[in-house]
Protein 1
Amino acid sequence: MKTERDRIADEVVRKTERWPEDNVVPDDMESQDLIYHSAPEQELSLKYFTRKDTDAARPAIVFIHGGSWRGGDNLQFCRQGMYLAQKYNIFSVCINYRFGQVAKFPAALQDCKAAVRWVRSVADKFNIDTQRIGVVGGSAGAHLASLTALTGNVEKYEGAGPYQEFDSDVHMAVLFNGHFDMADQLRDHVQDAAMHNFFGAHPWELPGVYGEASPFLWVNEKSPPMLFLHGDQDHYPHRQSIAMHERLQHYGVYSELEIYEGIGHAWFNKQPACENTTLRMAQFIEHIFNLKTE
């Protein structure tokens, strides 16, 4: 039988399309917008959600929005973040990052890592279990989330952002319709203009850089567990999620894969897919982090 907390959490999932900026957070929840990094080009903000009614140690999830590395904002995953906070006592963090037209790769990745370090910097304040930190991303955000998960503490990707005394390791990733192989993207001419904007040059002008930005090439036996969700009609080919899943398995890393028939790109914030994919994501996180609903 569902509890009142379950009912409230389920209602969060059923909200339409995006988190309204004037939405009222329940009394037992805390949410705040703040600046986590003052980059040279702009200040970078995040929104967090957390429960106020428990002192139990909690995992943390950093959500990274999509938008072809040149658009979008951190409202994309606020519904999912609040759901996990409400139902599983997860410290949910939805971040903004620098776009390609503002600063070239690896700036956006460095921002994601700064956000993970920020989470560790507030671990004592919010009672965060720093051995249970994950990332979630969609589309370009899935690319950044997977790179964040696969390049923990790789110095050149840490950047000059704050909280350098903390590391950027994460322990799992959930990836919606992501890009994981830049060479494959180039072969299909998928997002040529967006990639040029993100990197600032064509691949032949940046030898090796497009490859370094391919999560597929970073997979090894120490990679964290991952869940891939992808529509088989996506113009970003779902074969990339299949290839990532199989590569992780090759290295003995736990991985799950869901391919959705007849589904195109960025479907996961539309009903009924939003509810279904949020629950599928929660199932994976519950398993990896050994969680119970509260």
Protein 2
Amino acid sequence: MTTSTGDLTSNSSIAEPVLLFLGVLSNSTEAVDRARRLIEIVFHMSIVEYGPVNFDFTDFYNGEMGPELLRRVWLLNGLMDPEDLHLTKLLTGNLEAALAGGAGRPRIVNLDPGYMSLARIALFTTKDRPHRLYLGSGIYGESTLQFFDSSYRDVAHTYADYRSPELRGFFNEQRPALKSLLRDYREGTEQCRNIYQILGDGQCSGCGESVDPSAPEN
């Protein structure tokens, strides 16, 4: 595609769809179950789970969330448009607050979104660092794993848990499924959704079920 602004002309290409995932931290099985139910309702997608595994790389979260935290990764089984996907970080922040019982209360679940593409594993964050790019709405992005030599591999700034062979292996195992979805998408037999379909009306896109993250389980 060619775009032009005045006398400035550039060649650009549309990014391929990606798979959204959430890095999940908690020491409460009940809270994790509630969070998973909410994510499945909001995104109307099934989840492929990595973990739980012990999260002992840092005690950064212990003061807020307590000890003995477990790491999970929830990979959503459906293609998403990467355009403006960083806004998922705003959504998960609201879900964290709702699960905690209101803004300002200590979190009981940490939900960090990112995406998986054929080229990289990317994370969204509110914290600026030299290796991160500003995406808008107070959100930055970083490429935390990069695919080369037939594997997702860590780089200098990769978080310790994402460096682990087990988590990198999980993403490697899911890569053929992403390739298959992309092939179906190019052939017109697989859909790609965008974040505005999720955020548009506070409902589950495709099922019309209203979402109240603070509501108890039935």
